[in-house]
């Protein structure tokens, strides 16, 4: 008898474990529904850095779209480049009882080439969930491989029309590697745990109501709360650097430009002749700048480290084109030939 009882209890326990979690829209607190078209039940973001050239990002997000106003959330899209690769992706659609009624793997999704500039270097994988009715509950799962630690995804825990029940971002890095982080439009700080081999940073939020949206207001980037996350040390396309201060980052950028501001002897003589009768340095700058304006074109080609490292001045001189940094580097090289010292500066012109 005891054996039968134990067997029955075991079956009951297994059945209880196997029961799917039901995300019932009716059970969502009324305070969170106010002004929201999407409810994020649970979002888990895990970043694990093994080395400066090796990291992985795993994301799981379960959310309910309450009505058609939230249909944009049903569009899955993730980018891939040479240093950020989408390894796996899966989408699940649930019914009101928590049963999976649709499942889509990465191979079923569309992938197309995208990129900045004349030549496309990346691609985007996307899929549109098309529900028969609302509300609908969806789960996004994906994993990315990062071959660069120059950039980590921000922790953007709330978006337009969203209310959040629970979200977390956990970053694990080797001991000795520090993360720099800055909360924007919020005061969110991580819980930091020091281990023997790893340091763990964890941010989490709960019970966040939707942010009121206003037609014609600033962009989402400029008013929705999020956390910027970067590493003190990094590697980008094999170029290792230090981001612990503006000085160290500037030194890394400066190294990328080393020996790229040298012009052929004939071009140096040309610029010297161009400004030989100029009364002052200001006039010399104006003449060289006018020459660039009239003889060179802007062409955006940014492949690999070329997103940060310019063409050499000699290459730009031969091709008569370049992007922002290539033309700036050429101007610097031209000014150097006539004895005027200058510096290339990285600036942020703002977001549209």
Walk me through the structure.
By secondary structure, the protein is of the alpha+beta class. The protein folds into 2 domains: 212 residues, Immunoglobulin-like (Sandwich); 81 residues, C8orf32 fold, CATH 3.10.620.30. The protein is built from 7 helices and 17 strands. The strands form 5 sheets. The chain has an 8-stranded mixed sheet, with no helix packed on it. It has a 3-stranded antiparallel sheet with strand order 3-7-6, with no helix packed on it. A hairpin with a 2-residue loop joins strand 14 and strand 15. Helix 5 packs across helix 7 and helix 6 packs across helix 7. The longest helix is centred in the N-terminal third of the chain and has 17 residues. The protein is elongated. The N and C termini lie far apart (74 Å). The N terminus is likely disordered.
- How many E strands? 17
CATH architecture of the largest domain: Sandwich
Q: Which strand-content bin applies to the residues?
A: 35-45%
Over the alpha carbons, how many angstroms does the gyration radius reach?
27 Å
Largest sheet: 8 strands, mixed
**Total number of domains:** 2
Q: What is the share of helical residues?
A: 10-25%
Strand order of the largest sheet: 5-4-8-2-1-9-12-11
The CATH topology of the largest domain is given as: Immunoglobulin-like
SSE string: HHEEEEEEEEEEEEEEEHHHEHEH
**Low-confidence parts, pLDDT < 50 over ≥5 residues?**
1-18
């Amino acid at each position: 008898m005891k054996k039968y009882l134990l067997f029955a209890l075991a079956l009951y326990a297994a059945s209880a474990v196997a029961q799917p979690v039901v995300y019932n829209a009716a059970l969502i607190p009324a305070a969170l529904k106010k002004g929201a078209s999407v409810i994020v039940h649970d979002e888990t973001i895990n970043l694990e850095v093994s080395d400066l050239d090796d990291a992985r990002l795993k994301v799981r997000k379960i959310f309910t779209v309450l009505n058609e106003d939230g249909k944009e959330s049903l569009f899955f899209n993730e980018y891939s480049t040479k240093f950020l690769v989408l390894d796996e992706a899966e989408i699940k659609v649930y019914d009101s009882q928590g049963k999976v009624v649709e499942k889509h793997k990465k191979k079923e999704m569309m992938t197309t080439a995208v990129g900045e500039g004349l030549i496309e270097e990346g691609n985007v994988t996307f899929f549109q969930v098309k529900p028969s009715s609302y509300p609908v509950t969806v789960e996004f799962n994906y994993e990315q491989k990062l071959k660069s630690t120059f950039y980590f995804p921000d922790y953007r825990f709330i978006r337009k029309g969203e209310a959040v029940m629970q979200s977390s971002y956990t970053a694990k890095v080797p001991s000795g590697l520090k993360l720099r982080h800055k909360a924007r439009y919020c005061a969110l700080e991580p819980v930091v745990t020091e281990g023997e081999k790893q340091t763990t940073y964890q941010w989490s939020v709960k019970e966040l109501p939707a942010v009121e949206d206003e037609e014609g207001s600033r962009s989402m980037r400029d008013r929705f709360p999020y956390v910027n996350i970067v590493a003190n040390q990094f590697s980008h396309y094999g170029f290792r650097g230090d981001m612990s201060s503006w000085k160290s980052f500037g030194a890394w950028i400066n190294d990328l430009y080393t020996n790229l501001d040298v012009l052929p002897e004939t071009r140096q003589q040309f610029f010297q002749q161009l400004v030989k009768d100029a009364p002052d340095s200001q006039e010399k700058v104006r003449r060289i700048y006018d020459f660039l304006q009239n003889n060179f074109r802007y062409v955006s080609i940014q492949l690999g480290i070329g997103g940060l490292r310019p063409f050499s001045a000699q290459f730009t001189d031969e091709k008569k084109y370049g992007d922002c940094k290539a033309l700036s580097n050429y101007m610097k090289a031209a000014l150097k030939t006539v004895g005027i010292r200058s510096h290339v500066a990285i600036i942020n012109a703002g977001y549209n």
